[in-house]
TrEMBL record:
This protein's name: Small ribosomal subunit protein mS33
InterPro entries: Ribosomal_mS33
Coiled-coil regions listed: none
Gene Ontology cellular-component terms listed: mitochondrion; ribonucleoprotein complex; ribosome
């Protein structure tokens, strides 16, 4: 003797309410397994130490005091090391181009294979 499908579905609904699970009679993939898992954010946040006061925080609090920020100095030095020489090279390159602009370049002659440039 088979039990009616509607009675089985009613039983499944009651079972899901009691055990706090989702009612999914068609077995559609809902991602509920992933959503039920505990969040990893708090565990990861607790793994890393809390942020301490930085030089920038002190500079914002006390703008009148002179402070030394080594990371900022390294950043500025790195920028100056690459930006200033490149602009200097660009300026030197422009000067050479202006001097060369009066000279004419001779066209290059391509000889067929087997002929020498010295033969007349």
């Amino acid at each position: 003797m088979a039990v009616a499908r509607s009675r089985v579905l009613d039983l499944m609904k009651a079972q899901c309410r009691i055990f706090s699970t989702t009612f999914n009679p068609t077995n559609i993939r809902t991602g509920n397994k992933v959503l039920r898992q505990r969040l990893k954010g708090p565990a990861l946040a607790a793994y890393y130490p809390r942020k301490v006061v930085t030089i920038r925080d002190l500079q914002k609090l006390y703008p009148n005091f002179e402070t030394w920020d080594e990371e900022e100095e390294d950043r500025v030095e790195h920028i100056l090391m690459w930006v200033v020489p490149s602009t200097k090279i660009e300026r030197e390159g422009r000067a050479e181009e202006e001097e060369d602009s009066g000279r004419q370049v001779k066209p290059m002659v391509i000889l067929p294979i087997g002929e020498c440039a010295n033969r007349r």
